[in-house]
Amino acid sequence: MFPRLIVGILVTIVIVGLVNKFRKRLSASKSEVSSSKAIKCDYCGIYIPIDQIIYRRDKAFCSQGHADKGV
Ligand SMILES: [Zn+2]
Question: Which of 9, 35, 42, 47 could cysteine-pair with 59, CB 3.0–4.6 Å?
Answer without folding.
Answer: 42
